[in-house]
Amino acid sequence: MATDTASDTGTAAANEPIYVDDQSQLDDVVAEQDVVLTDFYADWCGPCQMLEPIVETLAAETDATVAKIDVDANQQLAAAYGVRGVPTLVLFADGEQVEEVVGLKGEDELRALIESYTK
């Protein structure tokens, strides 16, 4: 039942990251979920690769939905959110952008950030 790529809509299982390909898909995920942690990443980025197991754990263990956006494949979407470096994490709560974190952060710090917005 589980798949390696949850590229469905925001209704995909929230216990694994959802791969987002355009603005409308991201808008749907943000509208349908209470808290969304969006990971803007690049395959060639070392810190992004180190962050990947952390965001996968957060997707599985927190109430947040994790959306992953490849900045190379989605340059316009990255530009729309002012992403200048990767990894950049953008947190949405109740449909609004509430936080932006640039660079590699630890699981505990990101978990605390998510939990400060979950009900």
Automatic annotation (TrEMBL):
For the keyword Transcription, the answer is no
Site label Contributes to redox potential value, positions:
46-47
Matches recorded under PANTHER family? GEO12009P1
* Residues of the active site: 45 (nucleophile), 48 (nucleophile)
Which gene holds the coding sequence for this protein?
trxA
Q: Mind telling me which Gene3D superfamilies this protein's record contains?
A: Glutaredoxin (3.40.30.10)
Keywords assigned by UniProt? Disulfide bond, Electron transport, Redox-active center, Transport
Q: Which GO terms describe its molecular function?
A: protein-disulfide reductase activity
Indicate the secretion signal residues.
Answer: none
Q: List the disulfide bonds.
A: 45-48
Q: Does the keyword Transport apply?
A: yes
Top-rank lineage group of the source organism: Archaea
The protein in question is named Thioredoxin
Q: Which CDD domains match?
A: TRX_family
Specify the Thioredoxin domain's residue ranges.
Answer: 1-119
Q: Where along the sequence does the record put site: Deprotonates C-terminal active site Cys?
A: 39
The family database entries (InterPro entries) matched by this protein are listed as: Thioredoxin (IPR005746), Thioredoxin-like_sf (IPR036249), Thioredoxin_CS (IPR017937), Thioredoxin_domain (IPR013766)
Record's Gene Ontology CC terms?
cytoplasm
NCBIfam families in the cross-refs: thioredoxin (TIGR01068)
One Pfam family hit: Thioredoxin
